[in-house]
Each structure stands twice: as C-alpha cells, then as structure tokens.
Amino acid sequence: MDRPSSRVPPSEPAPPSNPVPHRGGRDQAGRRRARERAATDRDIRRTARALLVEQGPEAVTLRAIARDLGITAPALYRYYASRDDLLEHLRADVVTDLGEALADEIAGHDADGPRRLFAICRGFRHWALTHVNEFTLVFASGVTATTSSSAKLQQLTEPFGRLFLLAAGDVLLSDEAALPSDDVVPAELRDDLAGYRDALLAVLAEAGIDVPQARLTVGTTYLMMQFWARLYGHVTLEVFGNYPIPLAKPEALFDALLGDLAREIGLDVPAA
C-alpha cells in the first residue's frame, strides 16, 4: 500500500517560518502604539493636575500618579525623565489655561489699550484667588529653575506672559502715556533691562507690532518691570493671606493699586 507523502505539493509552497509583516500592518501597529502612548500621557497629566488642584504641588509625585493609574512608578519614566520634568509640563499646561482664560476675559472689551491691560490685571487676580494651588506651582514655587516667580515674564512666548506684555506695551507705547527717561534707571540694571528690551522688541515684531526702538526705551522697560512687580506682589500677598492687617474688602486695595499704577503713567484707570 502506498504511504501518503509528507511533502507539500509544489503548487502549495510551505509558508516561511518568519513571515515579514505587511508594511500596512506595521504602520497600523505604530499608529496604535502612538495613540496608546498619547492616551496614557493624557491620563498622567490629568491625574497630576487633579493632585495639584486637590492637594497642592507637593502631592504631585510619580509614586502617587502611578498608584492612581494602577501602574508602576518606573513605567512613568518612559514618559517623563523625572518629577521635575513632569512638573514643568504641568506648569506649561496651567500657563496655557491661564492665557486662554484671560484672553476670554478681555474678548468683550473694545480696542482701548488701558481697558484690556487692567482687565487682564483683574482677571489675573481673580484666577489666582480661585486657583491657589495652580498659582503656587507656577508663580510661587521653587520646584525647578523655570518655575520660580522671577522667571515668569522671561517666557515671552508663553500665553500669559505674551498677553500681559503685549497689552502693557500697547498702553505704555501710546502717545497718552507719560514715560520715564532712562535717567531714572539704576546704572546697575541698565544692561539687564536693555537685553530684555531687545527680546521684547522681537516679540512685538513677531506679533506684527512695529515699535520704534526710540519709543521702547530702557526707562519704559524699567516701568513695565515695576508694574509687574507691584501687581505680582499684591496678588501674592492676598493669595497667601500675608497682608500685615486683616482687610474686609481687599479688592478695594487692589483697585487703589491699579489707580496708582495708571496715574503714574498719566492714565485714568478704567472701571471694572
């Protein structure tokens, strides 16, 4: 009796032992992995933001995030090199949200520069008082070098810094504003302010605002920095309850500050 052949007939060649995946399959697998990675990254940031809002910056740790997501802490290092790296991305998310909130705040105002600037100031105070932990991370935390309060307005391309500086520049560079001479600037600060002035001119130019260099002087830059320092100082004191005396209506003191700042540059502060 003939035995059945164990060979595969020539018309039906045996499949290769290690088939090469179809290129379309590789592409689909790559896109799927990219989507999964993006989804996990969003979950990480969403969890980190929730910890920040509910418990403050110190609660945002890789271990706490991993525990909430049901993964191991080492797995997070595939997304962020360190806790500081994650906090820097979280800070950027908060700054973006702040910029969008303030842009909405001034959307209903007309083209009047002072109205926009002081609406931003009031909006910043309101946001800080209602987002204390987020304000702490971005404006009052020394977690990383870039999250220190002294660095905020160096980030001219960030949504909040750009919005504030463009509005302030629009006011200070108008013919109505009374600008100081360079003589009022301490000699020790002039080189730093000149460098910052040049950076600000570049940002204004990118925004399509042509500002003569003779108008944006070192003295004007000095005034803008003082404006921010006083605004930031007031808001920080109020957020953390560090006024030397209790105030029943702290908003009245804030409005008085805005009035002082406006009068110093020859303007009337617009009503809220």
Low-confidence residue ranges? 1-12, 143-154
- The rounded Rg comes to 28 Å
Query: Which of globular, elongated, flat, extended, rod-shaped describes the shape?
Result: globular
Could you give the order of the helices and strands?
HHHHHHHHH
Number of strands: 0
**Percentage of residues in strands:** under 5%
Q: Helix proportion of residues, in percent? A: 55-70%
Specify the structural class. mainly alpha
Rounded mean pLDDT is 81
What is the count of helical runs?
Answer: 9
Largest sheet: none
Distance between the termini: 105 Å
Structural write-up:
The protein is an all-alpha fold and 272 residues long. Helices cover 58% and strands 0% of the residues. It is built from nine helices and no strands. It has helices at 23-55, 62-69, 83-106, 113-130, 132-139, 159-172, 190-206, 218-239, 250-264. Mean pLDDT is 81; it is low at 1-12 and 143-154.
List the helices and strands and how they pair.
Blueprint: H1 23-55, H2 62-69, H3 83-106, H4 113-130, H5 132-139, H6 159-172, H7 190-206, H8 218-239, H9 250-264
Helix pairs in contact: 1-2, 1-5, 3-4, 3-6, 4-6, 4-8, 8-9
Keywords:
mainly alpha; 272 residues
Nutshell version of this structure?
The chain is mostly helical. It contains nine helices and no strands. Helix 4 (113-130) runs antiparallel to helix 6 and helix 4 packs parallel to helix 8.
